[in-house]
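queue> holo job accepted (protoporphyrin IX containing FE)
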Amino acid sequence: MALLVVLGFAIGLVMVALPLTQLLAKIIAYQVHKTIGLLVPPLVLWRLWLRARRGRPPEDPGLPAWQHSAARLGHAALYALLLVVPVLGYLSASTAPGQIETVMFLLVPIPHVLEPDEASYETLRAIHQVLAWSLVVLAAGHATVAVIHHRRGHSVLAHMLGR
Ligand code: HEM
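queue> job finished
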């Protein structure tokens, strides 16, 4: 999932920067971006289902309570962003005046649920952009803190990797 988010994010930045003179590359980049992004919500839901069934990895008892609370808050924000960012992306694509179709894997058309509307598109697109940055920054912070704990001899990273 981390790989999908990083790839989707990088392609998102590239696709908007591509000039219209490279139209084919731009359209393909949009479809790859949307395909990658639409894979994320079902994977999050699957992950949440597994988490509910199997329970969370054990917390490291060597860490202070405030760090456990901060971690829980961070996880909740990550899960929320992993669901909200793709949904906002999909709604942006639906309302886009240009009406570029959404075709997963360049094969499966996904119907748009909203009518094209410039004002809604601009708002949704701006929120999608800000929250996509928030997701990537939070995920990078999450990974950095895990590595810091690992270097200090705590078991957090091992638990994240299922050991
Ligand atoms: C985790 C999933 C996703 C991430 C991290 C992500 C990230 C991004 C980023 C970084 C941009 C560029 C923002 C900018 O600089 O203007 C972008 C734009 C966009 N994304 Fe996503 N996105 C995701 C999912 C989706 C999905 C599922 C869709 C549609 C099905 C989508 C549709 C769009 C659209 C329409 C734009 C605006 C392009 C434009 O301004 O022309 N995104 N996204």
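queue> The pocket of protoporphyrin IX containing FE is lined by residues 5, 8-9, 12-13, 16, 33-34, 37-38, 40, 85-86, 89-90, 92-93, 96, 102, 125, 128-129, 132, 135 (CB under 6 Å).
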